[in-house]
Amino acid sequence: MTQIYDHPGHLIRRLHQISVAIFVAETQAMGFDLTPVQYGALATLRDHPGIDQATLAGMIAHDRVTIGGVIARLEARGYIRRKVRNDDRRARVLTLTNAGIAVLKAIEPAVLATQDQIVAVLTGPDRAEFMRLMRILTETGNQFSRAPLERRLVSAQG
């Protein structure tokens, strides 16, 4: 009987838990209260201002139903602004506020430190190989995700 500790799914789940814990510790140490998903939403809006909520969800591979709560929390903190889209009254255009831009600039060192800490025990070649293999697994398995990354949106947006 195979041990659960040797199952790829279990190890991936554990690594996700570890990466979130490191992110929270690093960012809280700098006085920030953002989740990795909230950071991803802000960073994507910085790079793609004026996208709508559904597009943002696809670009960060987040569930379209729950992205509304993420957006609401970021808006309540004054980091983003929602405005009705001119060509579709049902859609909302999302943009960063000055506070959102400022928090992204200030949190960036903690985010980079998080990424380094997650793979700190791996040497340069092992890190590169780990990243290569993760890209293969996420790209080839994307269609199985309940919130797949919509690469066409990423490409179309720049």
TrEMBL record:
PROSITE patterns: HTH_MARR_1, HTH_MARR_2
Pfam family, one: MarR
HTH marR-type domain location: 8-139
Organism encoding this protein: Paracoccus amoyensis
The organism's taxonomic lineage, starting at the top: Bacteria, Pseudomonadati, Pseudomonadota, Alphaproteobacteria, Rhodobacterales
Assigned keywords, A-Z: DNA-binding, Transcription, Transcription regulation
Gene Ontology MF terms in the entry: DNA binding; DNA-binding transcription factor activity
Biological processes annotated in GO: response to stress
Keyword Transcription regulation (UniProt): yes
SUPFAM superfamilies from the UniProt entry: Winged helix' DNA-binding domain
Superkingdom of origin: Bacteria
Protein name, as recorded: MarR family transcriptional regulator
Residues in the signal sequence: none
Record InterPro entries: HTH_MarR-typ, MarR/SlyA-like, Tscrpt_reg_MarR-type_CS, WH-like_DNA-bd_sf, WH_DNA-bd_sf
